[in-house]
Model the fold of this input.
Amino acid sequence: MPRRLCQKQNRKMRASLLPAARVLVKTYPLMSSSSATPLSSGTAGPLRGECRVPGDKSISHRALIFGALAVGRTRVSGLLEGEDVLCTAEALRALGATLTRGSDGVWTVSGVGVGGLQEPGGMLDMGNSGTGARLLMGAVAGHNITAFFTGDASLCKRPMARVTEPLSRMGARVVARQGGRLPLALTGAADPLPITYESPVASAQVKSAILLAGLSAPGQTTVIEPLHSRDHTENLLRHFGATVTSEATETGGRRITVTGQPELIAADLIVPGDPSSAAFPAVAALLLPGSAIEIAGVGINPLRAGLFETLTEMGAAIEFKNTRIEGGETVADLSIKSGPLKGVTVPAERAPSMIDEYPILAVAAAFAEGKTVMHGLSELRVKESDRLAAIATGLEACGAKVTIEGDTLIVEGTGARPKGGAKVAALLDHRIAMSFLVLGMAAERPVTIDDGATIATSFPDFVPLMNRLGGAITEAAL
Ligand code: S3P
Done:
């Protein structure tokens, strides 16, 4: 299916990378895997030492996209070189921007300016990435060009109407498969209309797509979201010189407005470590007795830090050291020590700030003493997999007690290690794959996942990094 297309592109891109990057690719064999890569994790010793996780995925996509829409050359340090972001880079090249990677790992984006994207000659294959697909649809919607979007089997199942519907109101025309799914064709508006859009979901992808299209519209484009979702688009728009306002609504939501037709000016930036990736070594260290690790340079934007807040409420020993501002984002070094956890209730309002972290939180909850009740999780049904179902199926197979009631997930921990010993389907979902590998490191018996290839979308060096800290993850036969 289309995933192969993107992998072909990625192989081509990797082949063109500079020597330093080739070493990097060699160290991370999962990146080039085109077939299933079953992995097993067994009882690991305590985790010890220091590490750095790769650059934030959300910020990496946006750094390249805004760089491509700016005038001048933007240098991006710390970019995540995962498959998702490489697909966005390739799509931006097809749209006319120039992106290069220096031997020091710094990427340079030579932008075409707002309104300057060109019509791509072929399909834009966004691989596994909802963020890449939806944000680029927003950017294309403000240009009078036609682009065809596709992705892998997971992305082709995900709902796109949540962005194509508001983009159509702005003047874009879309032909999609049933349910607004990829592959789809999008013709941007010659004269995009500014709109005020009340989003039914708290989704940074929806918000960002509309704001990106709004860059090409005259006047003000406004998105009202029911809860405040991650604000990297707002921060980066300001960083590149656009005028953006953001104010709380009376009902706990947010009203964000961008003034259209700005000239975005190239502006260098540093991408912080991804808190969503830091979550995996952090939880593994909490669960493995005697562990003590440090994770340097992790982004702790409050709209992304819900997991750390929840784990702290569960009794976790997480210390934030050297808190500082880097590239406009709050960053800290995390120090984590193992210890017992207790069940807690996680309110629905916290969901947007930890939406990608529920699989690993559910794993932590299976080791905790007492019930962990997680409310407001309907959005988990439309991620890279149906994560609500994937978490429940995987945890049950590993001997944990789980219930789903509507959009609430309940995990009943006993304080003892779950049995493990299961084979878990990763469903083309990197976060399901990594979560169950962490579970296998701390459970009574090893856990096998059927395919870890998608881990390369967000955390290409996950396996070597975890093993360096003391983990026990190996390739497996199914
Ligand atoms: C993202 C937003 C979230 C998150 C995704 C990345 C982003 O999706 O799940 O992994 O970069 O904007 P939604 O905004 O659709 O909730």
